[in-house]
Amino acid sequence: MSDTRQVDVAVIGAGPAGTAAAYAARREGAERVVVFERDWEPGGILQQCIHPGFGLHTFGEELTGPEYMHRYLEKARDAGVRFDLNTMVFQMDRPEERGGKKIASFWTMNPSRGIEHIEAKSLVLSMGCRERPAGALGIAGSRPSGVYTAGTAQRFVNMEGLMPGKKVVIMGTGDIGLIMARRMVLEGAEVVGVFEIMPWVSGLRRNIAQCLDDFGIPYYLNHSVCELHGRGRLEGVTVVEVGPDRRSVPGSDKYVACDTLLLAVGLIPENELSRMAGIEIEPMTNGPAVNEYMQTSEECVFAAGNVVVVYDLVDFVSQEGERAGMYAARYAAGNLEKGGRSFKLVPGNNVRILSPQVLTAGSDVTVYLRVGEPVEGKCRLFADHGVFSKNLRYARPGEMNEVKVSSAVLAALPSDVTDITVSLEVS
Prior knowledge:
- The chain starts with a strand and ends with a strand.
- By secondary structure, it is of the alpha/beta class.
- It has three domains: 1-130 and 267-336, FAD/NAD(P)-binding domain (3-Layer(bba) Sandwich); 133-265, FAD/NAD(P)-binding domain; 339-427.
- Strand 8 (101-110) and strand 9 (114-125) form a beta hairpin.
- The protein is built from eight helices and 30 strands.
- The longest helix has 20 residues, at 314-333.
């Protein structure tokens, strides 16, 4: 097609993963690197994260979300990355093979340029994740105003200057919900309580300490919101205690007056575009299945950040973004070496999430994983065949663990080994 725009490395999403990927691609030598972002400004979710706590791993100091992104955006722009903002990718084509290599293609919409068809020698998916909304929870009652996801409330308060309400209940202990509990108190609202259906906290323990304990906000484990009250505006919620089977305990229901309910009940990788392109989705993570190059089932398509697996620290997101961008640039230049034998990582005892899911004997790699249930004592992560072993002081579902895997160890495995099971055991 004569009106098709050609790029070397295309990146979808200008958050921390996408910006890091684009910067790494230019650093690796790719010429035409373009980031396509649907928002008016780059930065992704970190634009609205004005609290500190970012960058300790990457920059060795504590930064706010905008400060962290500013540093990466400066590096990317100085390297010559182009950002196409206010540009929506609305259609992905399945990659086509040309001259022995696959080419990625997709369609964008921009108010000034209209609809464009883009072809890229390689593509990095970095669309991030979205919050689980009220409609996915099956809460009884009508649909009054005053029910928000925690991230929506965060954008209202930090970017739009709008307060969602004055008397707040928070459902779930995801990190955004914990941070917004503190934020709402600082803005003068009353946070009645935080209610978590699981018997453990799903967010970082530091956020429990800094956002709830330090501000006297009570939280209740094994509790859930089961009904909304009010029609035009939320007037209150019914909270119920739940048993080990996650069913409500009879007679435990309690009415809690409030005008606002914030939901912090999980994040879902944003993968509609991935599915359009025919990318294999890993059921364990709900993100693309990737190897240590962050390469998906389509060899010209790479993925990084929360679109692959939801991380707890943005530093991990940026690291994965740089890895994806570096290998995407090598693929575009035709010099990405094959890794040889491949091994499937399989979750074993009390391991819930693994990334990447496929390893080859091509390079050393960091594997990220989460456990399914907390272990509040010494424990050990280990993989079959002595691939790795790591002692931990504790293991919690809300905190990502990282382990190093040596390519030399993988290369030395017996020829009949194809799967590697990763497990957790109590010491």
